[in-house]
Amino acid sequence: MKKVAALMLGITLSAGAFASGPFQGTIKFTKTIGPVTANYTYFVKGDKIRVEEMSENGEIQGIMIIDTKANTVKALSPERKMYIDVPNKRPARDTEVYVQKTNNTKEINGYNCTEVKVTGKTDGREVTFWVANDDFDFMMPMLETLNRKDKLAVYFMNVPNLDGFFPMVGVERKTDGVELTKLHVNTVDKSELSAELFEIPADYTKFERD
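Request: output the structure for the sequence above.
Response:
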């Protein structure tokens, strides 16, 4: 399940079908950590999010299915046709940060995005987000369910009043300016999604830990 583990480490508009209401559709983004770049797609429908990690040739390497209502995460290996329940035993990660919501704006993927700067008070990191608001109501519950420890996730969760927002760009740097991690959304598409996307395929076998 090495590729499943890699996916866990990886882990955030055209004219749409919906005029209002919570976002439903796909978000494709690129995440770069040092010299390593990976491409991901979020499929969002209600309380369910499917995350796909793509290889360089466009094949699906790993999948996560997140249910924010049930607070569960399942990781799937398409290569082995197996899945595993991902336990969440880590405590919540609150951290002391300084948040600056600037007046800077720029258009990204058709959205008027606002700049938010978050600086850790003790860990020598700073993150710049360019956030868009379009009823992205899944984002905060997804991060809470995943309970991830990377700075992009932890710092975003510590910014007040960001419910409904999504980071179109997120850049983590050391306080000396050295870039460490960058997330950049490539496309956002509102569309009706099939419920089958968020189900375990019938031919998949559950992987049981010893």
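The helical segments are 2-10, 139-146, 151-157.
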